[in-house]
Write a structure and sequence with these properties.
CATH superfamily of chain A: M75 peptidase, HXXE motif
Radius of gyration of chain A: 19 Å
Largest interface: A-B, 49 and 49 residues
CATH class of the largest domain in chain B: Mainly Alpha
Pfam families (chain B): Cupredoxin_1, Peptidase_M75
Oligomer: heterodimer
GO cellular component, one term (chain B): periplasmic space
Number of strands of chain B: 9
CATH topology of chain A: A middle domain of Talin 1
Helix content of chain A: 55-70%
CATH class of chain A: Mainly Alpha
Strand content of chain A: under 5%
Number of strands of chain A: 2
Subcellular location (chain B): Periplasm
Protein name (chain B): Multidrug DMT transporter permease
Structural class of chain A: mainly alpha
CATH topology of the largest domain in chain B: A middle domain of Talin 1
Largest sheet of chain B: 5 strands, mixed
Largest sheet of chain A: 2 strands, antiparallel
Strand content of chain B: 5-15%
Strand order of the largest sheet of chain B: 3-9-8-5-6
Order of helices and strands of chain B: HEEEEEEEEEHHHHHHHHHHHH
Number of helices of chain A: 12
Number of domains of chain A: 1
Distance between the termini of chain B: 41 Å
Number of domains of chain B: 2
Order of helices and strands of chain A: HHHHHHHHHHEEHH
Radius of gyration of chain B: 29 Å
Helix content of chain B: 40-55%
Structural class of chain B: alpha+beta
Shape of chain B: elongated
Shape of chain A: globular
Family (chain B): Belongs to the EfeM/EfeO family.
CATH architecture of the largest domain in chain B: Up-down Bundle
Distance between the termini of chain A: 31 Å
């Protein structure tokens, strides 16, 4: 399943890259200052929320409250997933906060497998908080450090604008296949957060391209709306249904739209003179 | 982003069609990748593609040298697990490709500055390879006269700084207004001092708005009827009540107006379109006026908290210079180093005045100390005044 989407996304990206870019002469770097400043504020707010939510989550883990910890897992991750283009710039923290078992030699048994997915494994695969306390403490320390580093970071503009496509590629590669949150099956929460993060970037730069490229803007917002409407079907009172509830038809709709969004959004950097 | 292997077989017709559409490109890209891989290309000019093959947690080649500027890498995954490939500068990811599936390759472009980087080679604990980027004439020329685009990151961060400080200013002014309305003189004094710091930090930009500046920060010395002048409003009018009259009488409308004015200032900060040369220009202008006026005659005549204002002024200027530094340093290392050392001099002259209970009232600072501080601040103003020319901004 994953291969298929990854392949399709790459083909689109290849095609997009090969086509001549629309003229970007109208956009001065000074026009991008405010969108990037606003994005920094968005990232900072999410990083602060991540610290607050992770505190509640790890407190539940340390208190041995399996049910509460499970119920907080999906929502706690959202602020990380929304700002992933920036959060993952810190390779050490990204590895310790969000790596999956696959990234480690001994998979789930690897001592360096830490962070959200290690705790997820304990809570959902082993249905226990046994031995999770050190991982909880480490995760809390890591998100606190991440928040601090983000405050001090001058955002690389091309990573901000490129982040819109990166988030959609991330969805295509690991969320639609249901492999990111393989123990908890809360992939739709991550999906929603990646989606919101991507749309935020698009909305911030939208005024800069609307005038000269209204067809592009209309197409992209239409696809964002379609994904949003499909995702909304799986909304529950406190979050999202489990991944296995996603119907084959909706999965196909999401896959197609997400791949198109990834393709279209990958042209943003060029349109804004940031290649 | 080229995938170049044929082992995956898309199951639906639609995917098949897509695969066919892209296959011509894949064949070419795959062929190129194979060609370069078999040639074992290690380096070359920026038009070449450097092929890195990953197998069993090892990159081949494992040590790469490229010239500064744009380079293209094709990463071939010959291992049995999906992997990501990253170029790292310390812990920071410079460029990366994620989800390269086994048997496939992806291409990435990186614009690299001279220096030593690491490359990842599979799993998180796999030993890393090295990427050595040598100086190039092209990259050196670009760094010597940074384009407007190079300032985009610092300018955005500067705007975040302005908005953050302006928010703190509004919040503290709200607390001041509340305390005055509640008739709490002590709380009002405390809030007044809290509000001065964020205002002083953004003063180089705040004073660009003459109307608000004249309403928020006029000093009685420049008004015809001094403290009795109807134009005497804002911070110092409130200060006069809190510290000279020791009374909150008549201050409620003044603090309400101040709150409205700093809120307007916040909105203007958010929409401010600042060309990069304004940063050094604004900092130098403020520092000169501190050296020539504030330190000589003082500004907080009743609270005598001028040294706290100046500390916040210097903190703001220091932030502005720190933001410019990554762009300015490669272009004008001497000018930047000079600013750094003048900044340290000004800071130490100020800190020397600090006692165990913080800064003394300004009227306790003798003429000699004032003169030293003024000279150091003026020297800093002059060093910053040279920056724009040094980086080609004027």
């Amino acid at each position: 399943m994953k291969l298929k989407f990854a392949l399709a996304a790459s083909l689109f990206a290849l095609t997009a890259a090969a086509l001549p870019q629309a003229a970007s002469a109208e956009v001065s770097p000074l026009d991008l200052v405010q969108p990037i400043a606003d994005y920094k504020i968005y990232v900072s707010e999410n990083a602060e929320k991540l610290v607050t939510d992770t505190k509640a989550f790890t407190d539940a883990v340390k208190a041995g409250d399996v049910d509460k910890a499970k119920s907080l897992f999906g929502s706690t991750r959202m602020s990380y997933e929304a700002i992933e283009p920036i959060a993952e710039l810190f390779s050490d923290l990204d590895g310790s906060i969000d790596s999956r078992a696959d990234d480690h030699e001994k998979a789930e048994k690897d001592p360096e497998f830490t962070g959200f997915h290690r705790i997820e494994y304990g809570l959902f695969a082993e249905n226990s908080t046994k031995d999770l306390e050190p991982f909880a403490d480490k995760l809390m320390a890591d998100v606190t450090e991440l928040n601090k580093r983000i405050t001090d970071l001058t955002l690389p503009p091309e990573k901000v604008v490129g982040g819109a496509a990166v988030l959609m590629e991330e969805v295509a590669a690991t969320k639609i296949s249901g492999e990111e949150d393989r123990y908890s099956h809360t992939d739709l929460w991550d999906f929603k957060a990646n989606f919101d993060g991507s749309r935020k970037i698009f909305d911030l730069v939208r005024p800069l391209i609307e005038k000269d490229d209204s067809a592009f803007v209309t197409k992209v917002s239409g696809n964002f709306d379609a994904v949003d409407a499909t995702l909304a079907k799986y909304k529950t009172a406190d979050g999202y249904q489990l991944y296995e509830k996603l119907t084959e038809d909706d999965r196909a709709v999401l896959a197609a739209k997400v791949n198109t969004l990834a393709e279209d959004l990958s042209t943003l950097r060029g349109k804004l003179g940031l290649n | 982003m080229t995938q170049s292997a044929g082992s995956a077989s898309p199951s639906s017709q639609r995917w098949m069609k897509l695969a066919v559409v892209g296959s011509a490109g894949l064949v070419i890209a795959g062929g190129l990748a194979f060609y370069y891989a078999s040639k074992g290309t290690k380096s070359g000019n920026s038009a070449d593609t450097i092929v890195v093959t990953i197998k069993d947690g090892t990159c081949t080649p494992n040590a790469i040298t490229v010239p500064a500027g744009r380079s293209t890498f094709t990463i071939v995954n010959n291992s049995d697990r999906a992997l990501e490939w990253e170029i790292l500068d310390g812990v920071m990811v410079v460029e990366e490709r994620e989800n390269i599936v086994p048997g496939f390759s992806q291409t990435l472009q990186a614009k690299l500055k001279a220096g030593d980087y690491e490359i990842t080679c599979g799993l998180l604990n796999s030993p890393r390879g090295t990427l050595h980027v040598t100086p190039s004439a092209e990259a050196d020329a670009e760094a010597a006269k940074p384009a407007l685009r190079a300032y985009l990151g610092p300018l955005a961060e500067f705007q975040v700084f302005l908005v953050t400080q302006a928010n703190a200013l509004v919040k503290a002014t709200q607390a001041l207004d509340d305390a005055i309305k509640a008739g709490d003189l002590e709380k009002a004094r405390e809030s007044w001092q809290k509000a001065r710091a964020p205002y002083s930090q953004i003063e180089p930009m705040a004073d660009l708005f003459a109307d608000l500046h004249n309403a928020v920060n006029p000093v009685a010395d420049y008004l015809e009827k001094r403290e009795q002048d109807p134009g005497f409003t804002g911070f110092h009018r409130i200060e006069y009540g809190l510290y000279a009259s020791n009374s909150l009488d008549g201050l409620a409308p003044v603090s309400a107006k101040l709150l409205a004015d700093v809120s307007a200032l916040k909105d203007r900060m958010r929409g401010l379109r600042i060309p990069p040369e304004q940063i050094a220009k604004g900092a130098a202008r403020l520092l000169s006026s501190i050296a020539e006026t504030k330190i000589i005659v003082g500004e907080d005549h009743y609270a005598k908290t001028d040294l706290a204002d100046i500390e916040a002024n210097l903190a703001g200027v220091s932030r502005m210079m720190a933001l410019l530094k990554p762009v300015a340093m490669p272009a004008a290392p001497e000018a930047v180093t000079d600013i750094d050392s003048r900044m340290a001099d000004a800071d130490s002259a100020l800190k020397a005045l600090r006692g165990p209970d913080g800064y003394p009232p300004f009227d306790n600072v003798n003429a000699e100390s004032r003169k030293t501080l003024a000279q150091r601040v003026q020297a800093l103003a002059e060093a910053i005044g040279k920056l724009n020319a040094a980086v080609g901004l004027e």
